[in-house]
Backbone:
DNA sequence: CTCGGCATGTAATCCGTTACATGATTCT
DNA sequence: AGAATCATGTAACGGATTACATGCCGAG
């Protein structure tokens, strides 16, 4: 059985994935969040360092003091076999409807790290297929909701609420297009070429 | 000065806006979150009822026992003048870059309630203009990041990370198109017609 | 030897989640 | 009276935010 709790926070998974990419220190990890599009998974020290401590306490990562070239020595973390197992388990998780509707960004994080999955290409294709199916279903739902909004406000020409809903619909449709094209690319190249 | 803390949680603003639309009970508010696209602002009772208590304690909403037709009587909340003031203050907030990059969904919530802003049409246009400007800037940034990714992984044909980044870019571009069209519609009709 | 910048950490506070418990009314 | 249902509440817990504090090294 895996050490620590069964389910981890999004931030923890983000850290695990980044460390899997290459061994890194807390400071480097923080810079990734601050400087790249991965902001939003939070880069505050008050979140990262405790999370790293938890992961190390649960044996998923291991830190080694790295005599820095200048300044205070960094503590470089690398993934343990247990950590690799947790990563694989996460990547193998099915894509649920709630994931798509409520936590799409965590899903995209998972997609990004699907590169490290065992049998990566197959898993990636499955992931995208499932994502597409749920996005399609969601679109149907949202179109029904927009009809409800229209019915409720017959006289008013454009309500803010309707426009906001349209933004949501458009964004789902956009992601669906993305998924289809991504899958097409993976299907032809097999992810390798 | 306004009672209570200066800044409120997204959930609280969502509640304030919905109550502004029409007086509602906690149960009704919960249904809105569960049944509509507003899920994601959380609909758990453990979040809603305490939030309503906070708002009432701070004098932003006022609940009155409403003898229900069946079942336990509902507690119907309506906005107080202080609550209206807080709502207006929130709606008048400038659109910052961090809002756009990190909290786009809260921004869309604000947009939806901009219908209730004093001088709604003008504020809406300003909101959209500012949103567009920040989205454009963000797009430039993200395109630079994708070049960095390309430089880092020259040989590999499609990396998952690059695809995930493309999804983000596409989604920002999509929202930008939405904002432009929304503004066009508001400009011509003046939001009324 | 202290200054400044790199790197890590911590303390207070607060909100949301989950799961459970309770209140109030009608129907049978 | 009890069941069913509508509606509200609460208790335990954990993690994120914010703001601050500390450690360690080289340069001057």
Residues:
């Amino acid at each position: 059985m895996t050490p620590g709790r069964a389910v981890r926070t999004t931030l923890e998974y983000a850290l695990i994935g980044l460390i899997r990419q290459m061994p890194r220190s807390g400071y480097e990890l923080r810079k990734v969040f601050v400087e790249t599009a991965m902001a939003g998974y939070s880069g505050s020290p008050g979140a990262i360092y405790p999370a790293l401590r938890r992961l190390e306490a649960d044996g998923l990562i291991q830190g080694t003091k790295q005599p820095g070239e200048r300044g205070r020595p960094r503590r470089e973390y690398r993934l343990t076999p247990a950590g690799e197992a947790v990563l694989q388990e996460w990547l193998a998780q099915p894509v649920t409807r709630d994931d798509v509707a409520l936590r799409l960004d965590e899903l995209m994080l998972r997609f990004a790290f699907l590169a490290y999955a065992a049998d990566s290409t197959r898993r990636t294709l499955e992931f995208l297929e499932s994502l597409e199916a749920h996005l399609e279903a969601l679109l149907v739902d949202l179109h029904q909701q927009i009809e409800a909004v229209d019915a409720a406000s017959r006289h008013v020409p454009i309500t803010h609420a309707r426009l906001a809903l349209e933004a949501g619909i458009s964004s789902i449709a956009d992601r669906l297009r993305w998924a289809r094209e991504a899958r097409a690319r993976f299907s032809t190249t097999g992810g390798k070429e």
User: Anything to note?
Assistant: The helical segments of chain B are 10-21, 26-35, 45-57, 81-92, 97-102, 104-113, 120-152, 160-189. DSSP finds eight helices and three strands in chain B. Chain B has a mean pLDDT of 92. Residues 25-27, 30, 45-46, 48-50, 53, 68, 70-75 of chain B lie near DNA strand D (CB under 10 Å from a C1').
